[in-house]
Amino acid sequence: MKKLLTTILFLGTISVIAQKPNSLTTKEKKAGWKLLFDGKTMNGWRNFYKKDLAGAWQVSDNSIMLDDSFKEGWMAKGGGEITTNEVYENYEFSIDWKISEGGNSGIIFNSQEDDEKNHPYSWKTGPEFQVLDNERHEDGKIPKHRAGNLYDIFKYEPENVKPQGQWNTAKILQKNGNVKLFLNGRMVIEYTIGSPEYKKAVAESKFKDDPMWGTYTKGHIVLQDHGNRVWYRNVKIRKL
């Protein structure tokens, strides 16, 4: 009996051991998931509109980290937005994020590298899954700018974001123009690109003057440099 109890306790301990960061389980591999960050290098990432990567984006503690030691305006010196090389349309994307005190960042998707003069930033064409310290950043006072919201378009309630300094898991599920956003395992926002509800929300937002904003159903996935330290890990995607 003592040996049996020891075995049960041992197996129970194994079951609660967390999965190694930046890795895929056998089940995930069979389902078609691919890592976009190996935990060691920045391979597969580059600056938006560029072929290379600026030095402020580094690998730190098994995470993609933006070093905010120095700033140039509202962005980090040697930073800038970083993008996937590939364009994605129908997919499930998952990423863990952690923000610094008073920090701001974002995950922008369906972004176009089509016109650097008029669309110099990814958020000029694609919507943003907001990453924010709600309690200390000024945007936390604006309902549609809080963490987990589709920035300036849709908010969700009740909120389930974890406090600054803790890891959150964001997921974007997009198929045939239908978009579902998840935060920490719960779907928080759903919309369809081009639907009346979506068009109305865009028309009431800061993006109302660009008729093409947010109309794209495919594009790059981008991590934002908003001048604050931020960490990303477990970055993975599967095509649908």
Description:
- The protein is mostly beta strands and 240 residues long.
- It has one domain: Jelly Rolls.
- 12% of the residues lie in helices and 32% in strands.
- The chain contains 3 helices and 15 strands.
- It has helices at residues 2-16, 26-31, 196-203; strands at 34-35, 45-47, 57-60, 63-66, 71-72, 75-76, 82-84, 91-99, 104-111, 128-132, 168-175, 178-183, 186-192, 220-223, 230-239.
- The strands form 3 sheets. Strands 1, 3, 4, 8, 11, 12, 13 and 15 form an 8-stranded antiparallel beta sheet that branches. The protein has a 5-stranded antiparallel beta sheet with strand order 2-7-14-9-10, with no helix packed on it. A two-stranded antiparallel sheet has the order 5-6.
- It is globular, with a radius of gyration of 19 Å.
- The termini are far apart.
- Residues 5-10 have low confidence and may be disordered.
